[in-house]
Every structure is written in C-alpha cells, then in structure tokens.
Amino acid sequence: MTETILLDMDGVVLEGPGTPQSVYDRAADAAAAELDLEPTDRQRRELRSHGYETVASACSALGADPREFWRRKEDEASRLAAERIRSGERGIYGDIAALESLAERATLALVSNNRHETARFVADFLSVPFAAARGRPPTPEGFRRRKPDPHLLRETLEELRVEDGLYVGDRETDVVAAERVGLESAYLRRSHNANAALPEGATYELEGLDELLDVLEKR
User: Fold this and answer.
1) Helices (H), ranges, 48-104
2) Which helix (H) or strand (E) holds 135?
C-alpha cells in the first residue's frame, strides 16, 4: 500500500517559520495604490495588518471593498514571496533532498496555512514530485480556516482519495489539525522551535526530513 505524507511548507520546506511582515507591508501598499486609496498613517498600519478584521475596518473607513482589497493584498504577497524564493532571498532546507527518494515510496503533498498560490509555486519550483499542493484561498473565509482548523488537510485528503496518512509540521497547530482529521503527526525540529515543548499528541518527533524514511519503516 502506498503511504501518504502531507507536509507543512513554512519551517518544514521553506526556511523560517513564515512570511515576514515586510512582504505584507509591501503587498498592502501596492493594493492601496491599485485602488487609489489615500490612507492615513494609522490606516496604512491597519491595512498592513495580518488580521482580516483590522484590514476590513480600515477599508470601510476608506470606502473600499474589504474583500477586494484583501484579494489584491494576498495576490501581491504571493508574487513577492515567489520573487524571494527565486532569488534565494528565502532559502529552502537542504534536507528536502530526502523527499525525492521518499516520493518513490509515498504520495507527497504540501498543505500550508500560507497562500494557495505560494504553495503551488513552491510545489512547482522544487524537484520533489508533489501530488497536490494546498494553501489558504485569498478570501476572509480562507484566512479563518487556517490550521488548527482541519479544513485544508481534509480537502487535500479528499483530492488524493485517501483517508489516512502522516502530517509533518513544525507547530502545535499542525499536530492539532492532524489529530482532528485522523492523521498521525510528525513534529519537525528546526532552529525556530528547537527548544519548544513537544506538542501533546505528536506521533513522532523528527530532527530532519531524512528521518521520514525510518518513520515509514515503523508504520
């Protein structure tokens, strides 16, 4: 039977725990310019916020459609994120080479709280043959359904037509989301979580992606 291994992206495949605030700042400024908005300094800070409710409040004060602003901001953030990866400004963990061998024995997929376009870009950019890639859609609903909500994992399992497998992540929310959808979980240690407590319920603890081969032997 072919195993199914789903992997988080930020902090697992891409170096660092997430998209830096500077990317969202630039994306929000670009979206405001596209919509001919003239925010005050306070409103600009709100538009740059990572939370939808704060962004929506600023948009309402400016007479802008918050959903349209959010979509443009997310799209621009995805474009900027792709540029950073192409240029090498954001690195890729060296141990992803293990995934190329792992793909001969398991179905692999990316499932991330990051934007869907970024997840798709990373899946295409890498030499790993991912069978699926999923991130949050550029909508308020998509933002609210981030892990630990199991929605993204459930949709990916449905796409792959499987019901069980393993999810590899670097956060407690990854472990919780995996448990909620009936998956085993592997908590991956990186420099940003090296001293964090092992989340309750984690099935495995990994020091690198190369250890996934040993995990397959145990399953």
Assistant:
1) 52-62, 66-87, 97-102
2) strand 132-136
CB 202 within 8 A of CB 184: no
CB 199 within 8 A of CB 172: yes
CB atoms within 10 A of CB 213: 13
Q: Tell me the pLDDT tens digit for each residue of 186-205.
A: 999 999 999 999 999 999 99
Task: Tell me: pLDDT of 217 over 90.
Answer: no
Q: Identify how many contiguous H helices and E strands the chain contains and give both numbers.
A: 10, 6
Q: Above 80 in pLDDT, residue 1? A: no
Q: What amino acid is encoded at 137 in this protein? A: P
**Residue 131 is inside which H or E element, if any?**
none
Residue 205: phi, psi to the nearest 5?
Answer: -125, 125
Cβ distance 114 to 74 under 8 Å? no
Query: Are the beta carbons of 19 and 10 closer than 8 angstroms?
Result: yes
pLDDT digits (tens, 9 = 90+) for 16-61: 999 999 999 999 999 999 999 999 999 999 999 999 999 999 999 9
Task: Yes or no: say if 58 and 39 are a contact pair by the CB < 8 Å rule.
Answer: yes
Cα separation of 35 and 53, whole Å? 19
